[in-house]
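Quick one:
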Amino acid sequence: MSKERTRVVLAALALMLAAGCGANDGADHDSNDNKAPGVPKTATGSLEQLASKAECEPNIQTDATELRQANCTTGDGRYVLATFATDRGQREWINEAKDYGGSYLVGRKWVAVGDAKVVAALRGRLGGTVETGSSHHAGGDGGGEHEGHSGHDMG
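Output:
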């Protein structure tokens, strides 16, 4: 895709790698169920509005018409928050980024990318659905074990 979109995907990958996450890190993997107990209605708004709901002071990295991206660090951990001008642009970005693994919290025209535990905590504030990336970089089959998975020491 565009150079800008590729740069954003690479930035998200760098953040995920720095956070020590990979595919299938224990998220609840309910990519179509937003009715889980304790999950609020999916948030909407600008990057700044979403960041406020997520209790993040956004560090804006990309501020373009079709894509805005910020790095966030909260008590839950680090993640990338991105907003998109179009649904199609969002889906293309997610489809490209998922090749690198990781966990994605997806709302209408926004996505948060980070470690599964961070994404789970964000979901409690922003709602949305959890999607996971490809496991081909994880070195294993990804397995079906989600609860209690201890593949990464986040302590």
